[in-house]
Fold each of these.
Amino acid sequence: MSLPPAPTMEVDGGTTVVTPEMIRAPAVDQMTDTAIKFVKEARGAVMRTLMDIRVPQKELREDFDPDACTGDGQQRPPLMHFGFAMSWTQVIALLRRHNYLHSPSMPFKPTLANLSKTRSHPHLNIVEKDALRDRLLLVLGFKTGEELAMNECLTPKSVRVVISLYTNYSKGSNGWWTDEDRRQEVMSALRNFLRSKNYNPDEHLNWYWDAKWCGLGYSAPDDAFNPWPAAQNSRWRTHFDNRSPDEGKARRTIDTKGDQAY
């Protein structure tokens, strides 16, 4: 695969190529509104590039399989989730459609009760996302009898939440997935629950890049999936399991807006 074009953004009426330095948080004494706005726009441009090049896969590529990764010092593949992708708006609509968003039969959560009062949800905060995630996972546990997970992942449109059945690092360890009868039972329950006139589960069942660990700030082994060659971008991680908490905190303070944040 060829290398992707570098991210670009509009600056003073012209197009500027975004560099790794442009997405770094400014120093505390330089953190003006203008500086923060500039970094947000630069990160937005990089995120758009990442969503263009780190696309979902129907079938997992062989070089994304950790079992195929051999040799000392070889970089491990990125973390990929296999599951159903949804926007948070679709999650809310799903829970509302099945009367699980705010129901006497479910544990009361003020956050969900507030969300049930309106159909417009342009920006959800972390508390609201956590409440929706907990409620949907609880319901999915009832429907399938299995413990699933939900993770934000990259899609061509935005960062979306994925009902993760397993990852490229955990595949084969799920007892229900290796039992053909049980697998069909669980998948049938999921498809029936998720399907609506506006959502076809099979269209959204793919392998997705984990947005938290393998999104902004992560360089993949293959530069075809990087906005800049990894050798020219030493500040980005090359492993998804060694992220510094301080780095994450600094990045979240001026992250991209809306559902592009991780």
Amino acid sequence: MRERWAAGRLTADVAQELMRDSYRNYIRRHTPRFRALFDHLLGDHAPLVIHCTAGKDRTGVACALVLAALDVDDEIILGDYLLTNQYFRRDAAAHPDLPQDVLETIGTVQASFLAAALDTVREEYGDLQAYLREGLGIDEIARTALQRRYLTA
């Protein structure tokens, strides 16, 4: 990203596409890490903290996957993900050389970012249920165990 800024080519639109590319790569490159998360959840290794560099992108995808495995409605998952914009503030002083609109783009989450990850799931696995099963090892038995452990009536 900094290379594009140095070359005068980093705009908010370019930053949005770079963010979408990052989210696509979370599915392509981090599925083993997401699978390890589910192994911890199923093993009841509590307490458990989910984090990443900024605490919003890989963490947001991981939490969306957990909610999907719990059969939470897609609209609720998206709403939960977008709550990040109410509670997360990136330290603008950490990147004084970047334009404000670029900082706002990389310091927030957008529905299109999560959609890019989910589109990649569909491209590579067919649908989210297949990804949960094949990519993350969440079969019906595991799913039922997660629901019993993490949902209340």
Amino acid sequence: EDIKDWTIDVLTDALTRVEEAIRNNREDK
């Protein structure tokens, strides 16, 4: 379960970074 929780945290963090990157790209353009 610890590994599962860790994986979920990593994936969630990655998705958050991707969303922020997309927003920044839209603002730049």
Amino acid sequence: MCGRFVLAMPADAIKELFNLAVFDERLLPPRYNIAPTQPIVVIRQGFDGVEAVPVRWGFLPSWVKDTTRFPLLINARAEDIREKPAFRNAIRRRRCLVPASGFYEWQARGKGPKQPYWIAPKAGGPVAFAGIWETWIGADGSEIDTAAIITVAAEAPLDEVHHRRPAMIAPENFALWISGEDMTDAALSILTDLGAETLQATPVSRRVNRVADDDAGLIEPVSEEEEMPPAKPVQQRLL
């Protein structure tokens, strides 16, 4: 899955990558610990061309009546996205791109605490996660745009950290992915064009577990020994 990610790139890099004619730089403060329910930037096809807009990370289908009783959908599995009632309409015509510098994943370590890893492109630069979006309208007429990140099975060697990863879209396929046309088969076929071999995983501090921590130090590498909990002292028996 993808439960935290980073977007800390110059606005010019985002504008150039997604060929944005207009981009509000206020949408792009450096963020090193983006978490569910927070606002994220997505790239989608608008009425006047490609646009960058803020949405809530946590997908709400338009048919949901009581949001307090609906689960938080931050990810959508590519394998069954077209069959899931929550996602099947959005995958047809409301696909989007989620700009990111990289993401975090946690590796299970037996009974001990999980080890977080910072996973980012080996070549550097931003990437585009595949996403879907929806506009939810409340009973009072209020509207909120929401989104989910699509995930695929992680390949080796990334699967040693976690069995899922975000689907990434190659730049040459941006137009296909965000087109408002119902080209579901073609769109789903490009979700694994960029594989785990383009990524590198680095162990980082468990500070990333705290959403309130949001600084560049979170992606600094640490030795795994540094992150191991201290051993409990052995109690000596008196003879």
